[in-house]
Write a structure and sequence with these properties.
Elements lengths: L3 H6 L21 H9 L7 E7 L1 E2 L11 E2 L4 H20 L6 E8 L7 H14 L2 E11 L6 H9 L4 E7 L3 H7 L5 H13 L4 E8 L6 H14 L3 E6 L21 H17 L3 E3 L3 E3 L4 H7 L4 E3 L2 E3 L6 E4 L4 E4 L2 E5 L3 H9 L5 E6 L4 H14 L1 E3 H7 L11 H9 L3 E4 L2 E4 L7 H5 L18
Parallel strand pairs: 1-4, 1-13, 2-3, 4-5, 5-6, 6-7, 7-8
Antiparallel strand pairs: 8-10, 9-10, 11-12, 14-15, 15-16, 17-19, 18-19
Length: 449
């Protein structure tokens, strides 16, 4: 008989970087509503900014992101012009110059930009959005294409965090995912950024890749730990070739089974813990003095579209094609196709394609899901009372909670849920108990582990 971990690790559930999750946003969402939300923001409350750069110089076959190959720079240069224009559109829609606590460049590969274009974007942001003195300024990069000039520019512009997609160092796995990247390449990029004044480094690893084994992944973890990143994210590969056509280059038969995936995740997590990394939620690990570990210990951990964060801002503004944003009133997503996004911006319109206004129990259920994902615990009646709902608002989920308690994923006492050590990696499954949109959904999600 399979263990409870094996049973639940095969369940298909969302990643819960929002609630409701993005597939449930409506395409019938007027940009005028988003403009109203922006105008209604508290002008002295800090906000966060996310800028999406959907270009890469090389195609990775495992990637599920919205990205384009930048064979020539001219489309990227055009994109930069429209990105600057959208920054102005957003700033003009706000009630004042609003302070920024977190700024994140994601992609794609933001360092595909020319260093002068990155400087121009930062200059425009500084002009329209004053950065707080302790703001986190982060950028994602690809060690294979990170030039020395860009490393120096990142340091000069004041970035204080950089992220690398390491994924796996095993040569057979790298060949199978079309990402050849030896450890020396990652170490060179990391050393260069630290020398340029970027103090904090994140690595991303992936389990469940083609031809991957637990032993190979643990060797990769050991090699990463030797470079001493402050944080390591350990994600499960989501094989969705019906969405990401490049994943069709991966042979389904080369993928590990669900049980093998789970074994890889557990082995890598144990190796990270043995080296002093603190587990943060379901898939992040950080050194004890890292801000994320401190926030988790103090109950200040949050979760948004970039994953786990110490960012407490209630408003996250997404800029660029496919970027998702959040305000206290709800969620918005820009047009994913760069042409449609560019045309809207050029016409002076906010390039919103989809959105969702929070209603009913959305805020309540979203808060409960976030606390389960971040803290591994939540007081259901107390949370309901705080938001004006009856103590038994969650009654339809009690049977599932009791079954999970019987399977030793959690304890459930007087409405208080506490995940067990075995249940923490399965927090997505527990969170799904409170997802009212999931019940009647036909959306396909990745497996829990």
């Amino acid at each position: 008989m399979p263990s409870a971990f094996e049973k639940y690790s095969k369940v298909n559930v969302p990643r819960y970087t929002s609630y409701p999750t993005a597939p449930h946003f409506s395409a019938h969402f007027p940009a005028a509503t988003y403009r109203e939300w922006l105008a209604a923001l508290d002008p002295i409350e800090p906000i966060s900014l996310y800028l999406h750069v959907p270009f890469c110089k090389q195609m990775c076959w495992y990637c599920g992101c919205n990205m384009k190959l930048a064979a020539r720079y001219s489309p990227v240069a055009t994109y930069v012009r429209h990105l600057l224009a959208e920054i102005d559109l957003i700033a003009d829609a706000l009630p004042a110059l609003m302070p920024v606590s977190h700024l994140h460049f994601g992609g794609g590969t933001p360092t595909v930009l020319e260093s002068d274009d990155l400087a121009a974007i930062m200059a425009r942001l500084s002009e329209r959005f004053p950065l707080l003195p302790d703001a986190e300024i982060a950028i994602e990069s690809d060690p294979r294409t990170l030039a020395d000039a860009m490393i120096q520019q990142i340091g000069l512009l004041g970035f204080n965090r950089a992220s690398f997609g390491v994924q796996e160092f095993d040569p057979n796995v790298q060949a199978a995912i079309n990402r050849i990247q030896p450890p020396e390449m990652v170490e060179r990029a990391t050393s260069g950024l630290r020398a340029a004044g970027v103090p904090n480094i994140n690595f991303d690893l992936i389990y469940g890749l083609p031809h991957q084994t637990a032993a190979a992944l643990c060797r990769t973890v050991e090699q990463c730990v030797a470079i001493k990143p402050d944080r390591i994210a350990l994600f499960g590969y989501a094989h969705v070739p019906w969405v990401a056509k490049n994943q069709r280059m991966i042979d389904d038969g080369s993928l590990p089974t669900a049980s093998e995936r789970a074994a890889q995740a557990r082995a890598a997590a144990a190796t990270l813990a043995a080296h002093g990394y603190i587990r943060i939620g379901i898939d992040h690990f950080a050194l004890p003095d890292d801000g994320l570990a401190i926030a988790a210990a103090e109950g200040r951990l949050h979760r948004n579209f970039q994953g786990y964060t110490s960012d407490a801002a209630r408003t996250l503004i997404g800029i660029g094609a496919t970027a998702i944003g959040q305000t206290p009133q709800g969620y918005v997503q820009n047009a994913s196709e760069t042409g449609a996004w560019s045309r809207a911006v050029a016409a002076g319109k906010l390039p919103v394609a989809r959105g969702h206004a929070l209603r009913g129990q959305d805020q309540l259920r979203g808060h409960v899901i976030e606390r389960i994902m971040c803290d591994g615990s939540v007081d259901l009646p107390a949370t309901g009372r705080a938001l004006g709902f009856a103590d038994d608002w969650y009654v339809e989920g009690i049977a599932e909670l009791l079954q999970m308690q019987n399977d030793r994923l959690l304890t459930y006492t007087d409405g208080k849920v506490l995940l067990s050590p075995e249940g923490i990696p399965l927090a997505r499954v527990v969170a799904a108990v409170f997802d009212s949109y999931l019940r009647d959904s036909c959306v396909r999600h990745s497996i829990a582990v």
